[in-house]
Amino acid sequence: MKSLFVADIRENQPVDSLFLVTAKNHGVTKGGSGYLTLRLLDRSGEIEARVWERAEVLGREFDRNDFVRVRGQATLYQGKVQIRVQDIARVDESNVATEDFLPKSLYDPDAMAAELVTILRGMKNPHLRALAESFFSDQTFMDLLKRAPAGKTIHHPYLGGLLEHTLSLLKLILKVVENYQGIDVDLLLVGGFLHDIGKVYEFSFDRAVEYTDRGQLLGHLVMEIEIVSEKIKTIPDFPEELAMLVKHMIVSHHGSLEFGSPKLPQTVEAVILHYLDDLDGKIQSIQSLLEKEQGSRWTSFHRAYGRNFFRGPAREEKEG
Amino acid sequence: MKSLFVADIRENQPVDSLFLVTAKNHGVTKGGSGYLTLRLLDRSGEIEARVWERAEVLGREFDRNDFVRVRGQATLYQGKVQIRVQDIARVDESNVATEDFLPKSLYDPDAMAAELVTILRGMKNPHLRALAESFFSDQTFMDLLKRAPAGKTIHHPYLGGLLEHTLSLLKLILKVVENYQGIDVDLLLVGGFLHDIGKVYEFSFDRAVEYTDRGQLLGHLVMEIEIVSEKIKTIPDFPEELAMLVKHMIVSHHGSLEFGSPKLPQTVEAVILHYLDDLDGKIQSIQSLLEKEQGSRWTSFHRAYGRNFFRGPAREEKEG
Amino acid sequence: MKSLFVADIRENQPVDSLFLVTAKNHGVTKGGSGYLTLRLLDRSGEIEARVWERAEVLGREFDRNDFVRVRGQATLYQGKVQIRVQDIARVDESNVATEDFLPKSLYDPDAMAAELVTILRGMKNPHLRALAESFFSDQTFMDLLKRAPAGKTIHHPYLGGLLEHTLSLLKLILKVVENYQGIDVDLLLVGGFLHDIGKVYEFSFDRAVEYTDRGQLLGHLVMEIEIVSEKIKTIPDFPEELAMLVKHMIVSHHGSLEFGSPKLPQTVEAVILHYLDDLDGKIQSIQSLLEKEQGSRWTSFHRAYGRNFFRGPAREEKEG
Amino acid sequence: MKSLFVADIRENQPVDSLFLVTAKNHGVTKGGSGYLTLRLLDRSGEIEARVWERAEVLGREFDRNDFVRVRGQATLYQGKVQIRVQDIARVDESNVATEDFLPKSLYDPDAMAAELVTILRGMKNPHLRALAESFFSDQTFMDLLKRAPAGKTIHHPYLGGLLEHTLSLLKLILKVVENYQGIDVDLLLVGGFLHDIGKVYEFSFDRAVEYTDRGQLLGHLVMEIEIVSEKIKTIPDFPEELAMLVKHMIVSHHGSLEFGSPKLPQTVEAVILHYLDDLDGKIQSIQSLLEKEQGSRWTSFHRAYGRNFFRGPAREEKEG
Amino acid sequence: MKSLFVADIRENQPVDSLFLVTAKNHGVTKGGSGYLTLRLLDRSGEIEARVWERAEVLGREFDRNDFVRVRGQATLYQGKVQIRVQDIARVDESNVATEDFLPKSLYDPDAMAAELVTILRGMKNPHLRALAESFFSDQTFMDLLKRAPAGKTIHHPYLGGLLEHTLSLLKLILKVVENYQGIDVDLLLVGGFLHDIGKVYEFSFDRAVEYTDRGQLLGHLVMEIEIVSEKIKTIPDFPEELAMLVKHMIVSHHGSLEFGSPKLPQTVEAVILHYLDDLDGKIQSIQSLLEKEQGSRWTSFHRAYGRNFFRGPAREEKEG
Amino acid sequence: MKSLFVADIRENQPVDSLFLVTAKNHGVTKGGSGYLTLRLLDRSGEIEARVWERAEVLGREFDRNDFVRVRGQATLYQGKVQIRVQDIARVDESNVATEDFLPKSLYDPDAMAAELVTILRGMKNPHLRALAESFFSDQTFMDLLKRAPAGKTIHHPYLGGLLEHTLSLLKLILKVVENYQGIDVDLLLVGGFLHDIGKVYEFSFDRAVEYTDRGQLLGHLVMEIEIVSEKIKTIPDFPEELAMLVKHMIVSHHGSLEFGSPKLPQTVEAVILHYLDDLDGKIQSIQSLLEKEQGSRWTSFHRAYGRNFFRGPAREEKEG
After folding, report:
1. Contact by Cβ (8 Å): F97, F149
2. Which range, of B69-83, D5-19, D101-115, F262-276, averages the lowest pLDDT?
């Protein structure tokens, strides 16, 4: 576990901690001596650092994308805190806890996975239950599901975020269907479970969340179709029409063509899935922004949603 | 209560029932004798009718927009059923049950109103409770609320539809907030209660659902702002910021400018209200279309949503 | 082979030919006798027909969607030719040549298929060649490919249209790539071959071209991903990255999200495929409209393209 | 009155003047001594300033959002002028002329208000005249109207700008209606008067023009509806239909839903108001940009209008 | 001058008047005798007519697009008035007054032209005056200008409509510029004069207003550029920059790319021209719709503007 | 020919070469001495430079937009290479090779022009051949055509780029038309030749590619109409309809109104021209981006096309 995180570094504080090097540039002072400009990252943020002394020697020891141990002093430069480095050295990946470098869900992945399994095992439709089981028994998939983020930035963008979002959605579905009659709950639950599972391959998330080539060229929606087709083929007597309906849930869950669904939701269940998925993502995203920016009445501008958000008196009171 | 409804009239059936005349045109046959072409409406639909005999005499007795008693025979003409009228006479409005001419909610308006009142009296915020009470004690408003439709065609387009939609939305809100923390439930409930109340003045609904002039020129959203401002002024010490937040719920509930909200939802509660309002309307609208067109796998094209809907095997099975 | 086609029926002509019944409605004349209103279809168009005599007896013999032999006389009614039926009787499907009822390509499907196979066997990339072969050796697929239309109305909407369009596109690709360097021709050819193959399942085309349920709910693009994944799995050592690129050709070939591609073309080859596919479809569609409406300088309004087209003097001269 | 404005400060000039501090950051030089980086504003613009000496002592004396007296020297740094501060001290707001810090209209607010009153007192419709008078006799409102800007940046973004725009619009209306028959001039004038009055509460404009919370959450259009409803209620016998038409002018004046009007203009007068309002704003905005950037043929890019503007030879000649 | 116009024909009225035949179709009655269905047009509207007797003989005498003298009787058929023709015969074009068949402006074209000339001769800029004169002295152009409509349907769609719109626009410009300083009035006037002159070739308007081939393929905007280029070349020493600015007025007057202007207005004058042109067209169009539909509070739906219009009490009062 | 280009300058390298000065700013060091900050450009890119010594004296010798000879040393500053200038002096334009400062096509302009002439002389239509010849014999035009770029940034943005694009398009047309029947090849070739020729006046390209005033205010499309009208007038008996069709090719070649074509393509030839023009530009633009960024799998974000591009394994292999 890291001793000090970027977000906690204050002016004049001594620094001794692990970071990931995301940029490394050489410079020459007016006096002619070399120096290094670095960007250092951990899960709480990024900070700039300068190596003024022994820059050439120290610089030979590490590269961009390496983990390093940095010792130095925090100083203010042009109104921003940066680290004046006294010593820096490469650290082997095996000595680093990934969680220090990627933010992660506040909830325990195993507990979340258990709750999700319980909900889906409660379905009445034996074919859909069998489909869910085919994923539960796929250990590689389950391990990825417990770690994958739901996105790079927009909502649930942290380790375990995909599972957290999926579980929240399933619980939301269970509540919402109580209000209506004639909904095919099992179809809706399976749709909720599978709608984003392609994200386990759309992103790589070892040191930072990045799109994979497949993620860029095919997208999670198309990869989900492939994965689900594959699984269904392993289940005896899976009804063809049911398979089509499950895939339609996936194909249409973005809700409109311009958001990347090649088909509009054309069943009640697909319409509901689209709304609740979107709503769950937005609530998480807005709440997390409000939490991050406590103390101000208006959040900064949320680029994806095109607006600022207002905290409101009830929340202010609660936050004291 | 009417004896026979338009939707139930079959070829060759004798007809004797009350209708509203929505069109009345004179014609002359090739042989030179006059006849009448009528359109007759009740809550179940519209049908064409012809008066071939005594057209001149009978035609003097009634006009467009009158209720009439019609006796005759159902026949097929160009593939459609129409009524060949033998006798027709004006009927006084006092002898007509409005419900025969306007479709109405399947639920009892008084029971729905009582449930709505109970939910809103459960709010903790005394100011919002007082605001709700100011509506409950306004008898004129409550009477309108029990009768108003939620629209002309898109969703809940029948007497009591506004109340049915509002109540369903409140119950949905209560379920959804269980899934999240930090939501201002009372603000959300009051927003759900008030978001469409302007519709009691946006439409007239005595013989058919029509837009009023104010409805056309101002819209329900703007009228709601006026109504709510008015009510808030009658409540001592209503906090100004809370008033602003309630109005923001109304102002933003259509979710985007191009759908007629002059402001985007900028609080978590306003975002949730928009989604759940939209979802509740869509579910009702799609389910009612599926119900109306039982027997076909695909519904006819839903103009407002721009697509057909698929019934699905679960629903087919249930419907037998 | 039918003796007389709808498009050739003229006023006062005697009629004796086979048709498909697409509508059948009962009526009653003012005089009280029953009659039938029919719509009769063959590959050249649709025509209205009336059975005035023995309507009840004749009407019991056939239903909508049946093939029938019709004898009667062509007459003008309200400016349009219709058939006054003297005799009508059901004909067994086995006695009907489907090609009489669905328009078909002017080119021989076997010859087109042979040319397509030759082109694709000329590819240098052994993996892509193997992928193509996996389709060639799938007899069911090849039979469907030879019959499938490329659409219901927009372009190549006739039996064999999909193959005609695919072949034209491959030949166009071969010409275009001569003008540029550094294009991966084989990838482009395979993309051209596979970009629309899902249409063999998106449509049913036994008596008329209709969307299948899968076609409506999933779309041809998503079905192609499934089909291609399947085939690739049967080919040993197919490189994973190549598979991804082939699928990207399919996923992006509509060129933009609002036209149903969940991803934009992100390789030069995908960009080219999108343009040439779109261009080939448009040329066929416009030329066929000009041909159909010979004699007028402007075509009727082309709904899908949102404009009329101008014939131009060169074409007029050629058509003499 | 300030002695020296930001826009007039030149390299090497001694500085002694009042400013508003809009940013204040601490730094540490490589040598280890502290310094301050400031941003100083007045109505003519913003400038950067550095305190290199006695930074700690001087920095204790003032904060962001304070008015200060600054003595120092203008120098060039990276191609931009900045102030090297020798002395800086807080100044009490009572010793500051607000007009030095917010740009204001070139026209006298009292004279503009008088002209506006005269125009509106010339209306023939007694109800609309009474409505106008109800605003004239509201001293708080009239004081705000004389000071409010018409916007933050787009058009008339300075003290008195709202009144200047409103008056210009009324005069424009009077000219335009001469060209047409059958226009309800009084309705148009009242619409012109009221269409933006909500801006007196949409913005705060004490030290800088900022959106208020209500401005952000409700918008000026909705606030105008509230204000006008309020005033109308104080006028005996104000015809209900006239009230509706006045409000429609307000509700629709942005001209389209995507620009924030929940209803399209549906009377001739509302259509005219929308066009003339938009035109007046655009003319002011473009002319002020041309004036500000005298000497160049093309203005810089106007973000709100999405283009550059061309000065043209006539204007160039006039400007000499 | 025609004796009776379509708009004035009432049920049972005898008819004897001239019409243009716009459709002519042959039919056969159930009894086997031939009849003709016609559409007859004059400037006030279109009406259906039937020839039941001597149809074959009479039908040989005339064709679609001929002028005819029709004698018969007005009767009601399916709620619409139609003419039962007793006699019909071709009339030579030389015996027909075009104004009876095309609606025309209420204003005298010569008087309008004179007023337009006077306004433009008042310009101070000698080059622009010379440009205007080059059009005044072009007799062919002036004759067309006096007759051309401003459109097929949207605004000023009648003979002389182009001149009426142009003159109204010039007068509007003269009024509006009084309200602003620094506008190049002459440039604006010339822009107003020339912005639509291409319409004299975009439409043919001998018997009905139709698009010409050039009108369809090039559009009036592009034709104006050609015409103005041509004229400018005949004027000695016309400054090149001024020519460019005049053309920019034309090129940008539709105001946005999606309305067919390849460039946005980039001078103040071009911005003003776009607004006033659009406003003048809309006012005429709405007022004419209100006039045509006197008696109803709401007009029918205006397709081009996407809404109904409300008459308002002031207008109702005036109209009595 | 320049000795050293910006793109080749490396840290610590001595510099002695010619550049264009695009920015020149004065600064003062903390020590109080003056210095200069410059931006220097050649065809390969831009670089920053500093004059620390004798800044005042050297600075008097040259200005922005001058060509200069610079001697100094390349150093790293904040991670970027810049030039520390020791000597700098103005160089007369006559001593500078323009090609050193503007990028140019890899192909010989005379050879390209010759090929283009040959293709167009192969047309069968004598009128279109004459039209082409009227351009070939216009030496001023041909000289401009050989030098003009096809754009500022998007595609073929270098000297000779317009000719390179035009020629590539003509060759592409010749190949594509082999695949279809009934295309008017000559019309298509002339359209391809003329579709962008207005760009020779839309841009100035002496020292850098810039829009001219006419380019900004009229656009190349409108200027082409003028040029082509002019040329056609010099050709005896050029058929009017053919002239219209040629102009339609130009007017519609951007393919849609929002991309600046006032008319949609309404002939088959205009449709084809639009597609092939767009495709040729995109291929060049993407390939050049891939070439420039060799070594990375994904290109940087292409702003005009709104995406990154993927290199793909075939290209990677070829590039080694």
Report:
1. no
2. B69-83
Helix (H, G, I), strand (E, B) or coil at A88: strand
Distance from CA of C80 to the nearest CA of E (A): 8
CB contacts, 8 Å: A307 with chain B: 264, 266
d(CA F253, CA D109): 53
The answer for B 150-169 residues in CB contact with A (under 8 A) is: 168
C292 touches chain E (CB under 8 A): no
The dihedral built from the CA positions of residue D8, D9, D14 and D18, taken in this order, carries a sign that is positive
Cα angle, residue C293 at apex, residues C289 and C295 outer, rounded to 5°: 140
What are C239-267's pLDDT values in tens digits?
999 999 999 999 999 999 999 999 999 99
What's at B298, amino acid-wise?
W
Q: How far is F251 from chain E (nearest CA, A)?
A: 7
Structure-derived torsion over alpha carbons of residues F279, F284, F289, F292, reported in degrees to the nearest 10: 170
Max CA pair span of chain A: 79
pLDDT at F314: 83
Contacting residues of C for E212, CB less than 8 Å apart: none
> Where residue C218 falls among pLDDT bands split at 50, 70, 90?
very high
Residues F185-200: tens digit of each pLDDT: 999 999 999 999 999 9
Which tens digit of pLDDT belongs to each residue from A102-139? 888 999 999 999 999 999 999 999 999 999 999 999 99
Contact C76 E37 (CB under 8 A): no
Share of chain F above pLDDT 70, in %: 98
Which of E123, E151, E98 minimizes the C-alpha distance to E288? Answer: E151
Backbone torsions φ then ψ of A204, nearest 5 degrees: -105, 145
Window 215-254 of B: residues touching D by CB (8 A cutoff) are 216-219, 221-222, 225-226, 229-230, 241, 244-245, 247-248, 251
**Chain D residues within 8 A of F217 when measuring between CB atoms:** 310
DSSP string, E196-246: TTTHHHHEE-SSS-EE-HHHHHTHHHHHHHHHHHHHHHTSTT--HHHHHHH
Q: Residue A83's beta-bridge partner residues?
A: A49, A74
Helix axes E219-233, F219-233, angle to 10 degrees: 60
- The residue written with tokens 């490396």 in the block is F10
User: F32 to chain D nearest CA, in Å?
Assistant: 9
- The beta strand positions in C197-263, using DSSP E, are 203-204, 210-211
Residue D84 φ then ψ, to 5°: -95, 110
Q: Give Cβ neighbours of residue F145 (< 8 Å, ≥ 6 apart).
A: F113, F162, F163, F166, F197, F200
Asked if the C-beta of C26 comes within 8 angstroms of chain B's C-beta atoms, the answer is yes
Task: Tell me which residues of chain D, numbers 47 to 76, contact chain F at a CB-CB cutoff of 8 Å.
Answer: 75-76
Q: To 10 degrees, the CA torsion angle through F252, F254, F255, F260?
A: -90
Q: How far is CA D2 from CA D21, D101, D149, D209, in A?
A: 15, 9, 22, 20
Per the structure block, which two tokens stand in for E36? 């003709």
Per the CB < 8 Å rule, is E266 touching F217? yes
F163 closest CA partner among F116, F125, F119, F94: F116
pLDDT tens-digit series, residues A153-209: 878 889 999 999 999 999 999 999 999 999 999 999 999 999 999 999 999 987 778
Q: Return d(Cα D164, Cα D159) in angstroms, integer.
A: 9
Q: Is D176 on the interface with E (CB under 8 A)?
A: yes
Q: Do B216 and E79 touch (CB under 8 A)?
A: no
pTM comes to 0.90
Locate the chain E residue with the closest alpha carbon to D315: E182
Chain D residues in contact with E318 by the CB 8 A cut-off are 182
**pLDDT-derived band of residue D207, with 50, 70 and 90 as boundaries?**
confident
